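User: Altronate dehydratase, Novosphingobium flavum:
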Amino acid sequence: MSTKGQAALRIHADDTVAVALRALCAGETVTVGQVAVTLTEPIAQGHKLALRSHEPGDPVIKFGAPIGRATAPIAPGAHVHVDNLVTALVGELGYDPASARSALTQRPATALTWQGYRRADGRAATRNEIWILPTVGCVGPTAETIAREAMERHQRAGREGGLDGIHAFTHPHGCSQLGDDLAGTRALLAGLAANPNAAGVLLLGLGCESNQLGALVDSLPDGARAKVRTLATQSAGDEFAEAAALIDEMAEQAAACRRETIPFGELAVGLKCGGSDGFSGLTANPLLGRFSETLAASGGRAILTEIPEIFGAEQPLLERSTDAGVFQSAADLINGFKRYYLDQGLPVSENPSPGNIAGGITTLEEKSLGAVQKGGRAPLVDVIGYGAQVRRSGLTLLEAPGNDAVSSTALAAAGATLILFTTGRGTPLGFPVPTVKVASNSALAVAKPHWIDFDAALALDEGQDVADAAFLERVCALASGELTAAERSGNRAIAIWKRGVTL
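Assistant: Predicted structure for Altronate dehydratase:
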């Protein structure tokens, strides 16, 4: 169903607000379904307008759920935003595991295929690359130099073959860390090393750091050690020559790989949103949700994270748990994140960001209700910790914060071979695996074609079925080797979640 020509959209029948689909003027009369209101003030695109009167304390409803409470009288046609709406979120909550039920996806499997690389462990990769992962920030620049020189060397020799690239992913951590903080860094790097998109990995150490090479190798997931090489620069003679020899060996093996036809359901996809706006919950995130349902029905793996951006929208997600154990693990993870904030004397509702607010999002409940739509109605099958590997077909909940770089890196470490990243404000940054930027609105897609890979506003203009088919085709093309915007521009990085003291 297309909304072309409409001025505003009521998302759910119970909503007390609508979303402006274009900039609206004071005095303009807007008809939303059976309700007509005259605007008392201008309403920016993506922002909310009241469909009925609200008194102070009344819940404001969007997506069919409360997004906060009114702090002042709100007349029909008024702008609903930070001046008259606040969060109603509190701290930890009790959740009833008896409400857990297996929710079947609403969409059938697809027979689509893509061209990928088959690994020895049976997993499928969207890229065939050599990755250099430093154990510590001290050798980050060294790693970058080694990667740059190796790629230039192989390009000059014309030996790339099936080798898609050689990349170093640097970070400032790995030393002056203790306990769980150091363990988290180690788990994250081990997870990245195990990602199928890395045909070979050089773990580059210094020698005296806390994150010792031996302990890192010992923490690698089963099956990953065969493709990993290590080098401690303090004990090497010429570290550049020794690294070059190791990379040349791995690159020669990788260059022999060729793409083959892979079923759609063998994709492992990370779900992420960043720089959201008022359209994110209307276009881009629901698009990913329908994609996730199709992927889960096809036997694929979708990974949802950003736990703080579930606060206020957790109940519908929890109710899709396939059993009480998954339900309880997810509830504990959500409450644990709330405790993480409360223990620091901080509110659980500090989100949304200034950019979110400028784009029309007022409260964390509103942001969360839009964000969780990335998982659609796919069954929640598993909950995994930071640095752990995705294990099951369906939707997995991954422990990580909302920060774009930290959570996207965690998705790659969990085994995602593609990240679908929605945005309403725009961001150029990509991550180790292909990062598909999905714009929530056409203005962003037109203004930043060098950032954006797909315009989800197609769902408003041409209808969901058209958008869904186009998106499936686009994702398969990108999985098959077409470069994302972030890959073309070289915007690829990692970030590690630092949770402890620094010595």
